[in-house]
Amino acid sequence: MHIPLSAQNHSSGIYRNLFLEAGYSQEDINKKVEKTYFDLFEGPDRIYFEVGDSLGYVSDIKNKDVRTEGVSYGMMVAVQLDKKDVFDRIWRWSKKYLQHQDGPGKGYFAWSFDPEKMKINSPGSASDGELYFVTTLLLASNRWGNDTGIDYYAEARHILDAMWEKDGAEYVQPFINLEYKQISFVPGGHGYNWTDPSYHVPAFYEIWADYANDGHEQFYRDCADTSRVFLHRACHPVTGLNSDYTEFSGEPHPTPWMKPGFRYDSWRVPMNIAMDYLWYGKDKEWQESYAERFQNFLRSKGMDSFKDQYDLDGSEPEWILPAGDYEPTLRHSLGLISTAATASLININSNQNSMDFVHKIWNEKLEPYDDGYFDPYYDGLLYLFSLMHLSGKYQIILPDQN
What's the pLDDT tens digit per position in 322-350? Predict the structure, then answer.
């Protein structure tokens, strides 16, 4: 079944199922999503761990910590798949151990925590964590209401209200740079003045504008539009690749710990653009051009051999970012395969050949690489997100769905 793009929008409740269009049965699609969820949240290589009767967290196993990225991703999985107990456990754990209850960072979250030593590794925040927390809580409010033990809406507003109260005191700023209307790399110090393209999720700002009801609706819509224009500048005009870190202009931003280039964070960009295309469709022409360029670049490197890091012009980098304690190595990584496949949700309208990525991700497995490297956390979560997007199970949750 082909769903016309005109029938897909933020209020239709209709989401395309590319796996079904590719010829896979709905039963097999459901089983694949369910198995991947089981592997990550319940199986022997799980990344989700329950604590006591009411808490739980998601861990970056290879780095031996809990990150706001991971727990907020876990909450997104849980709210999309209607796993209320898991969502509530992760939120309670995050609020108890990560969220600052006082001081200049009140309302924000420590981005890294050691679950063995039960202590915060770094009290500072990474802005994408707050971005996902707010969005998942608003969707949870829409799905489950606010009178089942957690007032999800109030918790989302607490984070947003805290952002608006930050004024730079003790180096703590809003996690959105108010002058540039772009999400900051970190909400304080020098990191307030540059960004990470994978943190730009225009669709999330639209959710805030629709459901936060905090009086800043136009600002959030402006941020969505600004992020769309930013992505035009950040993505290479031929390859579609973007640097992990950039200035607000989209130009690469070098740091002492990483040279510019398309690396692990960047993998998320095509998935974020595909989500915005499907959910709100306000930048279709450029997004269609981007998806075609990006997928064509990867095809040019070989569907079964493209690497997970590149210089922006498509050449292999001299400097390789390592993953965990492993030697710096270029891999054909499941995380990138996953997000590249979601770009087919855009590109399939003009190029039926992009179904090749849909078949490719269908046949992939979450398992160790030849060198023994195994990452059920980042590879696994991006893989699950991709399966959810491509099967129509990653959606705007409307209030009348609760």
Answer: 998 888 999 999 999 999 999 999 977 66
Residues that are catalytic: 69, 265
What SS3 state is found at 64? coil
CA distances from 386 to 33, 303, 336 (A): 10, 17, 10
Q: Which of 119, 100, 115 is nearest to 66 (CA)?
A: 115
Sheet with 66-67: list strands edge to edge. 66-67, 112-114, 119-122
If phi > 0 it is left, if psi is from -120 to 50 it is alpha, else beta; for residue 48 that is beta
Q: How far apart are the first and last CA of the chain?
A: 27
Cα separation, 119 vs 110, in Å, equals 10
Please report how many Cα atoms fall inside a 13 Å half-sphere around the Cα of residue 104, on the Cβ side: 13
Spatial distance between the Cα atoms of 336 and 263, rounded to a whole number of angstroms: 10
Per-residue CA distances from 293 to 198, 253, 270, 282, 330 (Å): 18, 23, 11, 19, 22
| Dihedral sign computed on CA atoms, order 145, 151, 157, 159 | negative
User: Of 90, 89, 125, which is closest to residue 105 (Cα–Cα)?
Assistant: 125
Q: What is the pLDDT of residues 180-216, one digit of tens each?
A: 999 999 999 999 999 999 999 999 999 999 999 999 9
For 314-324, what is each residue's pLDDT tens digit? Answer: 999 999 999 98
Nearest alpha-carbon partner for 231 in 223, 172, 394: 223
* Among candidate residues 41, 45, 28, 27, the one with its CA nearest the CA of residue 81: 41
**CA angle at 92 for the pair 89 and 98, rounded to the nearest 5°:** 125
pTM above 0.85, yes or no: yes
Backbone φ and ψ for 49, nearest 5 degrees, come out as: -135, 130
Based on C-alpha coordinates, what's the Rg of the chain? 20
Cα 249 to Cα 158, 169, 390, distances in angstroms: 30, 26, 31
The 3-state DSSP class for residue 65 equals strand
